[in-house]
UniProtKB/TrEMBL annotation:
InterPro entries: G_AIG1, GIMA/IAN/Toc, P-loop_NTPase. Gene3D superfamilies: P-loop containing nucleotide triphosphate hydrolases. GO terms for molecular function: GTP binding. It comes from the Eukaryota. Residues 418-610 form the AIG1-type G domain. This is AIG1-type G domain-containing protein. The keyword Nucleotide-binding applies. Belongs to the TRAFAC class TrmE-Era-EngA-EngB-Septin-like GTPase superfamily. AIG1/Toc34/Toc159-like paraseptin GTPase family. IAN subfamily. PANTHER family: GTPASE IMAP FAMILY MEMBER 2-LIKE-RELATED, GTPASE, IMAP FAMILY MEMBER-RELATED. The keyword GTP-binding applies.
Length: 635
């Protein structure tokens, strides 16, 4: 057996029963309908569970007419459950469980290890008509009673169990075995296949790789590395993520890449599938339709992607139907890929799902991907796998991941007086955002938003520089989902530079509950980081330097506290006086230059804020659960 310092992935092998029963158990464990049909070989599918990963290996029926069939089954199971299963879940229907079934299970478990039963649990499937005393009856059945005894009396009835209880019992088995997984060492290649001299060199090299890490592999001389089979590419594993709208096309491509594995088309979350290509393990993560998801879901699903193909994908495949791929789709896809870091496009390839003319958006995306593409109607596995391997080789086997640094804001860059400037005007309804936008841009015929609830962007030249002004609709007391979507849309309208300053527009006067609620909603939605980007624009119809105006702002405690929540930054202007606009731009530039690190607030900054908030909530929830458990024990 091999020890695992921490079980970040729980691997469960399903044995016994009918394929429909195993499919039901596998889908129950994963929480999605992932398994369908009768597998002809072992099928490995993974899904997220809390912050970890659960992998289910579904096996074919246990029918071994010859010894070589058993060996073939074992090898297939070893490959699919690599680096080794934590639990064997024995799926049985008592009235159909025969001595032949018992023998088949014993053969499989025995070939793994004499300690396989320490990692095994029986799952009793329901019968069609279960009467009183049925439990006692099947417990007395010799073949089943012996199996349950060998599994140290670990068994559950499938129809009575809840998902959390089953996961907990599986985790308990892992803990009982000190976090170790099974390891089938007999399957390793015998030393006799190499001469003693070459075997010595191989052992030495393997030791070096183990001690120094994977980078050492790249330093092995060519004449030595050529001693190993399948070393022409040097690639040990292919980890691929599929993005696209069509569930049917993603399922079809997954089946092609994994080598014929049946794929259930629709999943509400990321699911991984495994296969093999020329001796290499192939993992394909099929994502749901990300184009119709919220920003929060984007972030959660990208985290799931990395979790399902650790340490991260080395290829991203973008399924595109040219005739339906819009500019909005392109922007959404670019944002999704940005969560993997700045090198995401170097690992990407477009998969064209249909033969149609290319739009401008598709051509731009193709350029971002370095011209790499594949057309699905070719359906040649060797062709697409060759292209995938070329991407991995070109990137020197590096992989993509998703961390706080990935979505963190960029370092500040030089912002000159002639640099483009992106401003977002916030505030309650009736605060005068449109009037402020007209004053800033020197225009009186700004086009309104198509809907009052949507952001609208205006542009113009002000003091010799290009200025973009986005009017953000009121967010206070709006549904959370609507607030998140519109906030993200507002920031995306300022890409690629991002938002330089958020300006909260307020008429000089007593603050309303809407004013306070609007600022609080903005700070909650855009995260605490937005405070560094926010300033207040007080608007008046008279001289802003008038003592009455100045005294009112400085002497009203509530207004001063409100200003401090924006870092104390505010400007008082008569927006009808065009001569005062340069003063506003000076205040904006000062706000930017006063920041030590951040130049602009981008969609990456937004994603980073959501991720941090989610992590904090999870930490608080975990702490609350711990306190509740301790309190319960003390009662």
């Amino acid at each position: 057996m091999a020890a695992a310092a921490s079980v970040s992935e729980l691997r469960v092998v399903l044995l016994g029963g009918s394929y429909s029963q195993r499919n039901s158990v596998g889908n129950f464990l994963l929480g999605v309908k992932a398994f369908c049909g009768a597998p002809s070989s072992c099928v490995r599918i993974s899904g997220p569970y809390e912050e970890k990963k659960i992998t289910v290996i579904n096996t074919p029926n246990l029918q071994f007419s010859k010894a070589d069939k058993l060996t073939e089954f074992i090898k297939d199971c070893v490959r699919a459950s690599a680096p080794g299963p934590h639990v064997f879940l024995l799926v049985l229907q008592p009235e159909n469980f025969t001595e032949t079934d018992q023998t088949s299970l014993y053969l499989v478990l025995g070939r793994f290890s004499d300690q396989s039963f320490d990692h095994s649990m029986v799952l009793i499937m329901p019968r069609r008509q279960e009467g009183l005393g049925f439990k006692e009856k099947y417990m007395k059945t010799p073949v089943l009673a012996e199996l349950i005894r060998k599994c140290q009396y670990r068994y559950l009835k499938f129809q009575d169990i809840e998902h959390l209880e089953l996961i907990t019992r599986l985790g308990q088995i892992v803990r009982e075995n000190n976090g170790e997984h099974m390891s089938y060492e007999e399957f390793e290649e015998p030393a006799s296949t190499l001469s003693s001299d070459l075997q010595s060199k191989k052992s030495s090299i393997l030791s070096t790789v183990t001690d120094a890490g994977i980078q050492a592999l790249k330093q092995i001389p060519t004449h030595i590395s050529s001693l190993w089979p399948n070393s022409s590419t040097g690639i040990s594993e292919l980890r691929i993520v599929l993005f696209g709208k069509s569930e049917d096309k993603k399922a079809k491509l997954t089946k092609l890449i994994t080598g014929g594995q049946n794929v259930h088309q629709k999943h509400s979350s990321c699911v991984s599938f495994s296969g093999e290509w020329r001796g290499k393990t192939v993992t394909v993560v099929k994502t749901p339709d990300m184009f119709s998801q919220s920003v929060e879901t984007f972030i959660e699903e990208i985290q799931n992607c990395v979790r399902l193909c650790p340490p991260g994908p080395n290829v991203l495949l973008l399924l595109v139907k040219p005739s339906e791929f819009s500019d909005i789709n392109k922007k959404t896809l670019k944002f999704i890929l940005s969560l993997f870091g700045q090198n995401a496009f170097k690992h990407s390839m477009i998969i064209f799902t249909h033969k149609t003319e290319m739009s401008v958006s598709v051509n731009e995306l193709l350029k971002d991907c370095g011209g790499r593409c594949y057309t699905m109607f070719e359906e040649e596995r060797e062709h697409v796998m060759k292209k995938i391997e070329e991407i991995v080789q070109k990137n020197q086997e590096t992989f993509l991941t998703f961390t706080e640094e990935t979505t963190g804001p960029k370092l500040i860059t030089e912002q000159t007086e002639n640099s483009p400037l992106n401003l977002v005007l916030c505030g309650r309804r009736g605060a005068g955002k449109t009037s402020a936008a007209e004053a800033i841009l020197g225009q009186t015929d700004l086009h309104p938003a198509s809907k009052p609830s949507e952001s609208v962007k205006h542009q113009g030249e002000v003091c010799g520089r290009l200025v973009s002004v986005v009017e953000l609709p009121p967010l206070y007391e709006k549904p959370h989902q609507e607030v998140m979507e519109e906030s993200f849309r507002c920031v995306s309208l300022c890409e690629p530079e991002g938002v330089h300053v958020f300006i909260l527009v307020l008429p000089v006067g007593l603050l309303t509950d809407e004013d306070k609620g609007e600022l609080q909603t903005i700070q909650d939605t855009f995260s605490s980081r937005v405070k560094d980007f926010t300033m207040i624009l007080f608007t008046v119809d008279l001289d802003p330097a008038a003592p009455a105006v100045d005294n009112f702002i400085k002497e009203t405690k509530e207004i001063q506290e409100f200003c401090q929540s924006c870092g104390g930054r505010y400007v008082v202007l008569n927006i009808k006086d065009k001569k005062q606009i340069p003063e506003l731009l000076e205040a904006v530039d000062k706000n930017i230059s006063d920041r030590k690190y951040l130049c602009s607030y981008t969609t990456k900054t937004f994603a980073h804020g959501q991720m941090v908030e989610k992590s904090q909530l999870q930490a608080e929830l975990k702490e609350l659960k711990t306190k509740t458990t301790v309190t319960g024990k003390n009662l």
